[in-house]
Design goal:
two-stranded antiparallel ribbon, mainly alpha, two-stranded antiparallel sheet, 8% strand, 10 helices, 260 residues, elongated
Amino acid sequence: MRFFNRVTLQTPESVELEFTLAGIGNRSLALLIDYLIWGLILFLVLIVWYFFATQLVDLLDTLININDLQLWLISIWILITFFIYVGYFVFFETLWQGQTPGKRFAGIRVIRDDGRTVGLQQATLRALLRPVDDTLFIGAVLIMLTRREKRLGDMAAGTVVIQADRAVAPARFPISEPAQQLAEQLPYLANLPALLPDDFAVIREYLQRRSAMEPKAKSELSRQLASQVKNVIALEELREKVSADVFLEAVYLAYQSNRT
């Protein structure tokens, strides 16, 4: 078993990002918390279902065979349990960008193999295969034995579980004066909290490596990144036109200031 196993992923923008894998301990802690919450939800639903089923049996016992009705109620309850089980993980991982309450407590999150946030498809596939992974601890064994610590759900969905907090290294690249001025305005013009740590990491990697890029590739990548970042932070057109590089430098500074 490896501790603090690190993995390098390549984003669709061809930027390489390095992550620390969550590890079996953090994942077990997260799953334990999630199962406690899930059990509490299931218990509350069971109470409501019990009263509903009791009233229904009293109402219909003179009209239909009571044994058939009880079998139907048990079948429906099993379906409800399954949907709550799957729905819990799908709901939170989709809404909380790869985290459930347990994962948030343990400081880990799920991302795609290319570093992007998981969507509904990935979360659903992971949740549907979780019962298989839980059987005879198949998932735990695979996490310990595979290089990227993947259980069956991760393999099928193309996901990996990482530690959520990424260390932010100090800038080792020049920041232009226009970027510093724009960085002071951005918190009032855009939704900076919408920017994820992984998005910020992509910007930082680009700014650090841009000087070694071919001019054409650098221009295309900066334009592509700037366009995506504008959408993420819901930024309208700026009053003054700035280059993509200046904009990305400003976002880098503003995001760092927002975190401190």
